Amino acid sequence: MRVPVLTYHSNNVSGNDYASNDHVALAQDLRRVARLGLRIVPLATVVDVLLGDAPASTVERAVALSFDDGSWFDWHDIDHPTWGPQRGFAGILRDFAAETGAAAHATSFVIVSPEARATLDRTCLAGRGWWGDEWWRAAQAEGLLAIESHSWDHNHPTLPRAAQDRSGTFRTIDSYGEADAQIRQAADWLDAFLAPRRSRLFAFPYGETNDYLLRDYLPLRAGEHRLRAAFGTEPAPVTRGSDRWNLPRYIAGAHWNEPAGLERLLASIG
User: Fold this and answer.
1) Residue 197 in contact with residue 169, Cβ under 8 Å?
2) What pLDDT shows up at residue 268?
3) What is the C-alpha separation between 237 and 77, in angstroms, rounded?
4) If DSSP codes are grouped into helix, strand and coil, which group holds residue 65?
5) Are the C-beta atoms of 78 and 72 separated by less than 8 Å?
6) Pairing mode, if any, of strands 84-86 and 78-80?
7) Domain ranges of the chain
8) Which molecular function GO terms apply here (predicted)?
9) CATH fold for the domain made of 5-269
10) Residue 56's closest CA among 251, 180, 237?
11) Does 141 have pLDDT greater than 60?
12) 3-state DSSP call for residue 84?
């Protein structure tokens, strides 16, 4: 079992070429993955194999996809105020499936708090209401994108108040109350919003974590938060030996920023 998880941020639009636009990169990378003879499998399937609930053959010669933050750019086609029309990530997946006949699926790790998203829309996007959650049920129903948790409010530095007193980095989430506010509260909200579907995966904001989350809260409070696994940002494939509570992912732009870089990355995994 050696499965690379390729991660993209739909908010990353600072130009219209591969290195400056994750929409351009995703569209090209999907076809590159297909040309290399690799399949795209749901991230939940990778976790099933890791935990022994599915055979390893399920993820043989496969990659998985994840998207972080969960803005409208994951789902909608949007006319960017600076860089013009952008095909949403969901549309890019549909285009790929229609063109190749191959399965396409990704997991969107979303910031759950409506209040936090409303603020982040102003501080991190264009302030046009592009961080709503009205598309999440449609995404789940179509089966193209799985909606999972990227925490309650990302503990983002631009928020006036986070779920706890200390803001700016997820490394400071090191007590039961803070962890519960960020992780279980997000799972509870998603479970109610997307019922009967249940949230089971988590991605650390910026990949930031600490010993309390990895060795205490996540493994010892599983009956409360109900998660099956969590993902970080270590650049490595998911293997049988990977830490269930800090699974690795490759981040577009950070771990490769050109088509040849992705090919080298995938070749190195084998």
Assistant:
1) no
2) 92
3) 31
4) strand
5) yes
6) antiparallel
7) 5-269
8) hydrolase activity, acting on carbon-nitrogen (but not peptide) bonds
9) TIM Barrel (3.20.20)
10) 237
11) yes
12) strand
Residues 6+ apart with CB under 8 A from 174: 210, 212, 213
Instruction: Spell out where the chain has E strands.
Output: 5-8, 39-40, 62-69, 78-80, 84-86, 106-110, 145-149, 201-203, 229-231, 250-251
Helix, strand and coil content of the chain, in percent to the nearest 5, comes to 40, 15, 40
Residues 6 or more apart from 244 whose CB is under 8 A from it? Answer: 50, 51, 219, 229, 230
Full-model pTM: 0.96
Residue scoring higher pLDDT (158 or 115)? 115
Count CB-CB contacts under 10 A for residue 126: 12
Q: Please tell me the least confidently modeled range out of 84-93, 153-162, 235-244, 251-260.
A: 153-162
Q: What is the DSSP letter of 117?
A: H
What would the two tokens of residue 42 be? 């749901």
Tokens of 211: 């010993």
Tell me, what's the pLDDT at 161?
A: 67
Q: Are strands 5-8 and 250-251 parallel, antiparallel or unpaired?
A: parallel
